[in-house]
Amino acid sequence: MIPIEYLLTAAAVLLLASITASRASGRLGVPALLIFLLVGMVAGSEGPGGIHFDDPYLAQFLGVVALSFILFAGGLETNWKSVRPLLRKGAALSTIGVLATALLVGWFSAALLGFTLYEGLLLGAIISSTDAAAVFSVLRSQKVSLSGNLKPLLELESGSNDPMAVMLTTGFIGLLLNPGDSILGMIPMIIRQMVLGAAVGYVMGKGMVLLLNNIRLEYSGLYPVLSLSLVMLTYGTTAAIGGNGFLAVYISGLIMGNQNFIHKTSLKRFHDGLAWLMQISMFLTLGLLVFPSQLVYVIETGLLVSVFLMFVARPAGVFLTLVRSGMNFREKTMVSWVGLRGAVPIILATFPLLAGVPRADLIFNIVFFIVLTSALLQGTTIPVVARWLRVDAPLTEKARYPLECEPTESMRCNLVEIEIPDDSIVIGKQVVDLGFPEGVLIVLVNRAGEMFIPGGNTVVTRGDKLLVLSDESILQVVRGILEKKEVKPSRQKHE
Known about the structure:
The protein folds into two domains: 4-394, Na+/H+ antiporter like fold; 414-482, Regulator of K+ conductance, C-terminal domain (Alpha-Beta Plaits). The protein contains 19 helices and six strands. It has helices spanning 4-28, 32-43, 56-77, 80-83, 87-112, 117-126, 132-141, 150-160, 162-177, 186-214, 222-240, 245-257, 264-289, 292-295, 299-321, 329-337, 343-355, 360-388, 472-482; strands spanning 144-146, 392-394, 414-419, 441-447, 450-452, 465-470. Mean pLDDT is 85; it is low at 490-495. α1 (4-28) packs antiparallel against α2 and α11 (222-240) packs across α13 (264-289).
């Protein structure tokens, strides 16, 4: 047995190395996931680190736990108002688009690469989901964003398409192990998992908010522990009754993140940090699990599948899904290219290993190679493609204010930034004359990046951003006042 102090030291060194190396990802324009994977490979049994790790069960267990917390954190950060108009498109991409991608890759693998039909479909299912979080980290490092509704659409797709990939993967594994079963038998299973996952996720999301607002714990440090246990309960309960636990945790996070509850700011920050820890741990573990010498034998097959996936299967799935979406050719092409593969395919590739599927080792190595290829090719060219397609937009950095408000049991306040519209009637007025209702406090004014505490005689100018402290119901009144437009006198013709 390895002494515990050695294990802790090794874990700390790997985490520090990953965090330090991730700084280079922005400068190189590559996703951080690639850096984390490479650190794990370097530390592995065939690298200088010499850490021998060959336990697919432990890797899968860690991957499932990590993905649950990552999806929950993604749901917490998703703005329902921005994704609601795109719900139909996002749902179609995360279901029909994923299915079309899996079927096309399955056909290609069976027709040209020597796989059986079910083996090809299993490979297609494993690599059918995308990782837009890696995409946005690249765009952020390059100071580039996406115009229009592309960003919220891709966020919605990436947060909700993993469950479909999981269901297809488990379904095709069942068909490989039980050749007598019909492929049509997967349809009831998928419907059941989606319905139960969505239902349990909705109920748990509402229940989490209700519990957090009424449990009144004596120590504030217990609230993150409570939320952590509720996420695990959501996944475990949903999976135990035959639903999709990943869909449940994402929906519960989405429901919870768009409601008011106590310690909301600190809990969101806690789960954001936890999600990063889970990502790094997951990538490191998967990097340790692979043997780089075995990747050499799948280079040709991996390249063929990667090229077909990036230039045929993914674009076909996107264009088929968004045929009546109203999006133009350039926007659909960008959605197609932002099909970066992340850690989820590698996690799913451990499922056939544990299930004893024939040629599971080959499938795992091909999937790992495809993820590396996708990160290197797509991950490094996304900003260039966005500019070439003219769908890029300047990245708007959120202002960092030196204070924040944490709602408690006795005070349900909100501290929000409100930008003054260019045609607002309050422009040119003093703060004392704005006519805000009682219970509203303008804490700071952000004027062209400069922040100051306003007085009653401070004049509001065009482009100001007000940091306002109040209750949410009163803030609606404040927004209504600021959105009133200045009425310009009309010119009348004199005869």
